[in-house]
């Protein structure tokens, strides 16, 4: 059970990738690209397969860098006895703990009973080394894998930095449902492991 908890925390952390290196990016999940969502086109930029049951792939808009992106799509897969509702519950618990010390943390979850999918819309913040604020909004969609036990997380993250945060938050308030709807109706890729 402790191993599963560690996996949950690793799997469900907000995306803050390590700096990219010059190695070619490996496509583990055979996701056809680019990913096109919310009028943006995302190319595979980073991937990892840190355990036998966990895969993570990140996609950036041309011109964005992992260290300071404005928008990122992601596909994560965990195989085995894990359900979408359990992954959602674990992330909500993590956000509740974060909110105790960070009042900017905010979240809302949704259930699509017809599809058996769970969604989470959440906002987190942190300070850069220079003290400037980073605000990140994530919309995660958890669904069961087809044909085998496990789950897929499909998500989109958007970020703002420093002086641009106020406009980012105003825009988010005015157009909150747009990204939720786009992620909700996105046709999830069929996963095929390499």
How would you describe this structure to a colleague?
The structure is a single chain. This protein is an alpha+beta fold. Helix content is 24%, strand content 38%. Helix 1 crosses helix 2 (84-99). The relative contact order is 0.17.
Short note summarizing the structure:
By secondary structure, the protein is of the alpha+beta class.
Overall number of strands: 8
What percentage of the residues does DSSP assign to strands (E)? 35-45%
Q: Please indicate the count of domains.
A: 1
Share of helical residues: 10-25%
- The chain-level structural class is alpha+beta
Features of the shown structure:
single chain, 194 residues, alpha+beta, Protein Transport Mog1p, Chain A, 8-stranded antiparallel sheet, 4 helices, 24% helix, globular, disordered N terminus
Give the topology.
Blueprint (H helix, E strand, L loop, with lengths): L1 H11 L22 E3 L2 E12 L2 E8 L9 E9 L4 H16 L6 E7 L4 E11 L5 E12 L5 E12 L3 H10 L1 H10 L9
Helix pairs in contact: 1-2
């Amino acid at each position: 059970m402790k191993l599963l908890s560690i996996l949950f925390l690793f799997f469900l952390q907000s995306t803050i990738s390590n700096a990219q290196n010059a190695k070619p990016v490996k496509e583990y999940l055979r996701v056809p690209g680019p990913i096109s969502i919310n009028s943006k086109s995302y190319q595979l930029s980073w991937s990892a397969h840190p355990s036998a049951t966990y895969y993570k792939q990140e996609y950036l808009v041309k011109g964005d860098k992992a260290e300071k992106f404005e928008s990122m799509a992601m596909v994560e897969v965990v195989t085995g006895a894990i359900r979408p509702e359990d992954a959602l519950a674990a992330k909500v618990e993590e956000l509740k703990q974060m909110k105790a010390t960070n009042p900017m943390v905010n979240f809302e979850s949704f259930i699509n009973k017809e599809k058996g999918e769970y969604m989470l819309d959440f906002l987190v913040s942190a300070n850069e080394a220079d003290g400037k604020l980073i605000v990140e909004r994530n919309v995660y969609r958890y669904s069961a894998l087809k044909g085998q036990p496990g789950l897929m997380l499909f998500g989109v993250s958007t970020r703002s930095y420093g002086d641009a945060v106020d406009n980012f938050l105003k825009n988010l308030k005015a157009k909150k449902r747009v990204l939720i709807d786009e992620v909700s109706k996105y046709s999830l890729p069929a996963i095929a492991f390499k």
